[in-house]
Amino acid sequence: MPAEILDLGRVDYREAWDLMQRMRLERKEGRRGDTLLLVEHPPVFTVGVQGGLDAEEVDGVPVFHIERGGLATYHGPGQIVGYPIVDLTPRGRDVRAFVHALEEMVARTLEPFGIQGRRVEGKRGVWVGDKKIASVGIAVRDWVTYHGFALNVATDLSYFEKIHPCGFEGKIMTSMQQVLNRTITPEEVKPVLKGTIGHL
């Protein structure tokens, strides 16, 4: 369970990436405890180590090629992005179990809103029916995690149709707002998410 949750609000992706790198090193050296960063990004596409998008920008939106697992995805306003900086050594260095815990934490966040999120064997992220509501992709260095999850709260889903998110067609993505058919904001969801942190 992370010792600290830092809600940084809207942060450019490059700034968040640099911060993750610094905090990962601090965790490795024992200068900080496990930490969960919560952010919201301006529109950006990120591409993991499996590729999936060979470009520097798409329709004016920047593309970052990064070291997390997985393929391409979108981050933008209306989405809660969580970056856990966690030492896996006390957890038995079990990367798969940690990813499952992240997915479970997000699924539990959805429950109070009446949304049934679930894990799907062989597919990363959190799913609602046959739609994907949250993406999960981490990196691990020196057994410390970084990168993390992105929960679509009120995300503009049209951006996903510009790419193949996680290798799927863009229309496979959904959001809490779309499922609930009402206005909802990240600020409404964050307290619930923070309350599920004990499951991480």
Quick one: biggest sheet? 7 strands, mixed
How would the global form be characterised? globular
State the name of the first-level CATH class: Alpha Beta
Number of helices: 4
CATH superfamily: Bira Bifunctional Protein, Domain 2
The total number of structural domains is 1
Helical amount among residues, as a percent range? 10-25%
Side-by-side strand order of the widest sheet: 1-2-7-11-10-9-8
Q: What is the CATH T-level topology?
A: BirA Bifunctional Protein, domain 2
Q: Distance between termini? A: 5 Å
* Strand proportion: 25-35%
Spell out the helices and strands N to C: EHEEEEEEHEEEEHH
Report the C-alpha radius of gyration, rounded. 16 Å
Uncertain ranges:
none
Count the strands?
A: 11
Q: Could you report the average pLDDT, rounded to the nearest whole number?
A: 92
Computed structural class:
alpha+beta
Overall CATH architecture? 2-Layer Sandwich
How would you explain this protein's 3D organization?
With 200 residues, the chain is of the alpha+beta class. It has one domain: BirA Bifunctional Protein, domain 2 (2-Layer Sandwich), CATH 3.30.930.10. The protein has helices spanning 13-28, 95-110, 176-180, 186-195; strands at residues 4-10, 35-40, 44-47, 57-58, 61-65, 72-75, 79-85, 118-120, 123-128, 131-141, 144-152. It has a 7-stranded mixed beta sheet with strand order 1-2-7-11-10-9-8, sandwiched between helices. It has a 4-stranded mixed beta sheet with strand order 4-5-3-6, with no helix packed on it. α2 (95-110) crosses α4. The protein starts with a strand and ends in a 5-residue tail after the last helix. The relative contact order is 0.19. The model has no long low-confidence stretch (mean pLDDT 92).
